[in-house]
C-alpha cells in the first residue's frame, strides 16, 4: 500500500514474492533503514535529521526507485535548502539530471533570471548556461566539442589557439536591485499513512485473521492488531479460536457497525463520522446518535483503546447529549468509570429545571436512583443545582 514497488515484490508474480529473504544491492543499509522508517511512520524529520547531503541524495534515489513520492519531495526540499549560489546550483542540477520527477528541485536551481531570484544570478548578472534532456553545459551552448577541436584546430605541435570575445554589460538583471522575494519552496504533501492503512483494511491484502461479528466477516492483520489493540487478540473467543487453530474468531456483544468502526480506528487512528455509522446501523433518526456513540465507548473500554478512542467517544457523547439521553449518558459514565464524562452529565442535568424535569421522567433515571452509584450521582446533581441557583 505504501509503495507500489514493494507491493509488486511481495504480492505480485515476481520472484521476490516467494522468498523469505530479499537482497537489496542498490543502496546502503543506512539508506534502506531510513526508507523503511519512513514507510512505517511517515516521519517528517527523516531527511532533516541527516547531516550528510550525499545520504539525503541517496535516499532521494531510493524514494524515486520505490515510488515513494512524499519521501522524494521531502528529500528535494532538504537538498534545496543548500542551494546558495552558482556552484551549488550547478552541482545539484548535475545530480538530478535525467531524474524527470525532480522538476521542482530543478526549477529551484534554475529559478527565474528575469526577476533576479535565480541562484545563478551573481551580483546582478545572470550566469549563462544551457540545459536540455541530453546535456548539461555551463557557459555558451555553441562551444566547439573536444573531438571537433582536435580535428579542426589542433596544429602539428598539438598547440591550440582559442580566441575569446567577452561582452561586458553594466546593466543588472531585472529586479536584482529590488528586494529579493523568497524562492518558491518545494511543496511536500501531507501525511498519507492513514489513507494507506485504511486501504490495507479495505482491500484485505495480506490479511491473516478473520473476525465474525453478527453475520459479517472482517479480515484484518494480526501484526497490526497486536501493536495497536492487543486486547482484540486476547479476547476469550480469540484465544479459543487459536487453540483450535480456527481461522475465524467470533465476537459477541458488539454490533457489526461498531466493530467496523473499531477496526477503522485501529488502522487509521480516527473514527468514521458518527452520522455514517447511524445510517449504516439502522438508517434511523438522529436520536440514535447517542446510542451509537455509547456503543463505541463501550467497545473502546472492552478492547482497551483507552488513550485516544475513549476520549473521542466521550467528546461524541457530549456533542449529542439531550435531556432525553442525559440519564443514559450518566449511567454509561458510571458504568465505565469516566469521571470527566460523569461531571459533564451532572453539570448538564443541573443546568436547567426543564432539563431536570425531562431527565427524571426517563426509566434510566428511575433505575439509576436505586443503583449503588446512582445515589452519589443524584446527590451531586442536587448540589450542583443549588450552586447554580443560589450562588
What layout of secondary structure does this protein have?
Elements: H1 4-11, H2 29-41, H3 53-65, H4 69-80, H5 86-96, H6 103-110, E1 121-122, E2 125-126, E3 129-131, E4 136-138, H7 146-152, H8 193-203, E5 209-213, E6 216-220, H9 222-228, H10 230-233, H11 236-243, E7 248-251, H12 256-268, H13 274-282, H14 289-302, H15 309-320, H16 326-335, H17 339-349, H18 353-360, H19 363-370, H20 374-390
Parallel strand pairs: 5-7
Antiparallel strand pairs: 1-2, 3-4, 5-6
Helix pairs in contact: 2-3, 3-4, 4-6, 5-6, 8-12, 12-14, 14-15, 16-17, 17-20
Short description:
By secondary structure, this protein is mostly helical. The protein is built from 20 helices and seven strands.
Structure, explained:
By secondary structure, the chain is mainly alpha-helical. The two termini are 59 Å apart. Helix 3 runs antiparallel to helix 4 and helix 17 crosses helix 20. The protein is 52% helix and 6% strand. About 10% of the residues have low confidence. A hairpin with a 4-residue loop joins strand 3 and strand 4. A three-stranded mixed β-sheet has the order 6-5-7. It has a two-stranded antiparallel ribbon with strand order 1-2. A two-stranded antiparallel ribbon has the order 3-4. It is elongated. The longest helix has 17 residues. It contains 20 helices and seven strands.
Q: Overall 3D geometry? A: elongated
Number of helices: 20
For the sheet with most strands, the description reads: 3 strands, mixed
Q: How much helix, percentage-wise, in residues?
A: 40-55%
> Which strand order does the major sheet show?
6-5-7
Amino acid at each position: 500500500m505504501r509503495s507500489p514497488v514493494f507491493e509488486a515484490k511481495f504480492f505480485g508474480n515476481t520472484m521476490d514474492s516467494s522468498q523469505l529473504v530479499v537482497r537489496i544491492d542498490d543502496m546502503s543499509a543506512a539508506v534502506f533503514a531510513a526508507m523503511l522508517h519512513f514507510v512505517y511512520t511517515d516521519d517528517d524529520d527523516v531527511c532533516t535529521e541527516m547531516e550528510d547531503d550525499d545520504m539525503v541524495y541517496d535516499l532521494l534515489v531510493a524514494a524515486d526507485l520505490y515510488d515513494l513520492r512524499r519521501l522524494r519531495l521531502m528529500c528535494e526540499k532538504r537538498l534545496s535548502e543548500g542551494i546558495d549560489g552558482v556552484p551549488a546550483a550547478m552541482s545539484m542540477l548535475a545530480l538530478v539530471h535525467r531524474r524527470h520527477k525532480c522538476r521542482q528541485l530543478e526549477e529551484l536551481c534554475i529559478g527565474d533570471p528575469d526577476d533576479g531570484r535565480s541562484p545563478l544570478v551573481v551580483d546582478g548578472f545572470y550566469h549563462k548556461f544551457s540545459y536540455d534532456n541530453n546535456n548539461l553545459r555551463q557557459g555558451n551552448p555553441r562551444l566547439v566539442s573536444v573531438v571537433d577541436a582536435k580535428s579542426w584546430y589542433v596544429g602539428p605541435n598539438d598547440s591550440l589557439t582559442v580566441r575569446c570575445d567577452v561582452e561586458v554589460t553594466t546593466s543588472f538583471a531585472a529586479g536584482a536591485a529590488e528586494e529579493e522575494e523568497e524562492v518558491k519552496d518545494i511543496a511536500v504533501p501531507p501525511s498519507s499513512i492513514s489513507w494507506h492503512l485504511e486501504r490495507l483494511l479495505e482491500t484485505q491484502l495480506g490479511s491473516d485473521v478473520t473476525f465474525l461479528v453478527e453475520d459479517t466477516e472482517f479480515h484484518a492483520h494480526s501484526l497490526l492488531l497486536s501493536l495497536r489493540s492487543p486486547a482484540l487478540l486476547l479476547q476469550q473467543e480469540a484465544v479459543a479460536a487459536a487453540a483450535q487453530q480456527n481461522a475465524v474468531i467470533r465476537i459477541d456483544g458488539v454490533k457489526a457497525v461498531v466493530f467496523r468502526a473499531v477496526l477503522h480506528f485501529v488502522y487509521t487512528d480516527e473514527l468514521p463520522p458518527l452520522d455514517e455509522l447511524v445510517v449504516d446501523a439502522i438508517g434511523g433518526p438522529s436520536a440514535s446518535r447517542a446510542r451509537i456513540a455509547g456503543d463505541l465507548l463501550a467497545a473502546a473500554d472492552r478492547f482497551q483503546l483507552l488513550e485516544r478512542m475513549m476520549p473521542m467517544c466521550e467528546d461524541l457523547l457530549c456533542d449529542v447529549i439531550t435531556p432525553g439521553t442525559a440519564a443514559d449518558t450518566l449511567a454509561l459514565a458510571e458504568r465505565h468509570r469516566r469521571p470527566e464524562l460523569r461531571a459533564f452529565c451532572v453539570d448538564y442535568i443541573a443546568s436547567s429545571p426543564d432539563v431536570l424535569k425531562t431527565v427524571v421522567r426517563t426509566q434510566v433515571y428511575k433505575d439509576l436512583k436505586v443503583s449503588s452509584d446512582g445515589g452519589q450521582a443524584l446527590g451531586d446533581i442536587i448540589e450542583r443545582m443549588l450552586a447554580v441557583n443560589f450562588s
